[in-house]
Amino acid sequence: MSEAIKGLKPKKLWRLFAQISSIPHGSKNEAALAAHLREVAEKAGFVVKKDDTGNLCVSVPATTGYEKIPTVVLQGHLDMVCEKNEAIDFDFAKDAIQLVRDGDWLKADGTTLGADNGVGVAAALAVALSEDVLHGPLEILLTVDEETGITGAMRLSPSLVSGRILLNFDSEKPGTVCIGCAGGCGVTTSLQLGWKDTPDGTIGMELKLTGLMGGHSGMDIHENRGNAVKLIARSLLALNELDIALAGFRSGDKHNAIPREGTAVIVLPVECAPRVREIIGDQIKSFTAELSNESQMYISTTQINLPGRVLCKESFETVLNMLMDFPCGVLAMSRDMPDLVETSNNLASAKIEGEVLITHNSSRSSLPQALQATVNQVVAVGDLAGAINNVEESYPGWKPNTDSKILHILEDTHEEIFGNRPDREATHAGLECGVIGDKFDGMDMVSFGPNIVNAHSPDEAVSISSVEKFWRLLLGVTGKVARGAYH
């Protein structure tokens, strides 16, 4: 058992989370974790079904005497976002997450923690494995590949699930219950580049931007955090007076994370090197004034070996124009719910690979028409640049239902346990509830969870005390349903 979870309660939940953390389970690499959890469930005597996509559904019999109660689906996703600090030597394909306890917070050592959604998965199984927990019939639905496009939910077999009451555990704010979410769509744009030989009398230089906060492109987009792709592009634009040429660009990795770091390789006349550093110094000052929350931001300038080729002037200008023109950040706020982002776009990544610049934009909106308009804008920028756009399959949002029976049960339970009713919210992030609700007619849903901060970044952390409160609320809801509250 990891020392970081020693003595934590509920013990069964934390032990399961430690097991989950020890098995690599990045998006599209969940097979080993799924196999382990299936073994755990079947060893306990539960029936486990698996669809062709890799989603699992564990059928858990009711507590004796409560067999006729409506089935409750406990739902979470198996995969995690794989982000690490550049200095950390870590392979998400084979290495176990190293848990670190810091007061009331559980973190990882320089990587994402995977509390999103590992704590929720652990909680669902802990309910099933705890003999002293009162509940009716349960289905534990564990989906794959949520983080890179909600693929598991999109391809979920209808035969896997029979219940029509769903508790989703992919929310990250304590004292709240989520009752709606945004839909989303991704666009990958490929721009063919033109090259030329590196001019004589020049030197190579690497610009490296580090220290941005990053974060979840849905949950954190409203906080005006710096986007590394955009800031590097702006720095290159400021340097253009020096007759620089571009030889390389790489920033961002995950479609649903705000890019935190990035590099650009430039070539410039030897005599311009001092001026480069002056301009970059001015850019840092400008960015810091604009992004006062980004106190750790830094751009280094390092002379490197001279690249053998650079982009031709026309391609360089097209790259800059395209990166500058892509929409990025909050585009509209909700007219119905205060402080809720309605529409946004995250320029998630840009990288030169071989002869091509590949970018990815992630668009989100709670309004289908606004989502389509944003995607159309991204595509239009690509078209103007002469690039090829690949528009991914969009996923639906989840319209709030304030008359939901399970919502009222959760609110009553929260008030009974903690003395107050939870805040209702809708999230700008995509949740599997939107897809599942669209797929299964009549699904009554809520989403709640413990306090998780900085999801999708190496600063991800979960509040230990909030996990215990989340657990108490979960048991209260399943117990209330079992005693006949859902009618």
Secondary structure elements and their pairing?
Elements lengths: L10 H12 L8 H13 L3 E4 L5 E5 L11 E6 L21 E4 L2 E4 L6 H15 L8 E6 L7 H4 L10 E4 L7 E6 L1 E10 L2 E3 L4 E9 L17 H12 L5 E7 L10 E8 L3 H18 L7 E7 L4 E3 L1 H13 L3 E5 L7 E13 L2 E10 L2 H18 L2 E4 L13 H14 L4 E5 L4 H8 L4 E4 L4 E2 L7 E3 H19 L5
Parallel strand pairs: 3-6, 3-7, 7-21, 8-20
Antiparallel strand pairs: 1-2, 2-6, 4-5, 5-23, 9-18, 9-19, 10-15, 11-13, 11-14, 12-13, 12-17, 16-17, 17-18, 22-23
Number of domains: 2
- Tell me the radius of gyration: 24 Å
Measured by DSSP, the beta-strand proportion falls in 25-35%
Class based on secondary structure composition and strand pairing: alpha+beta
- The unreliable regions are none
- Helix percent reads 25-40%
| CATH class designation of the largest domain | Alpha Beta
CATH architecture of the largest domain: 3-Layer(aba) Sandwich
CATH superfamily of the largest domain: Zn peptidases
Coarse shape: elongated
CATH topology of the largest domain: Aminopeptidase
Q: What is the subunit arrangement here?
A: single chain
Largest sheet: 9 strands, antiparallel
Mean of all residue-level pLDDT scores? 95
Total number of helical segments?
A: 11
Number of beta strands: 23
Distance between the termini: 42 Å
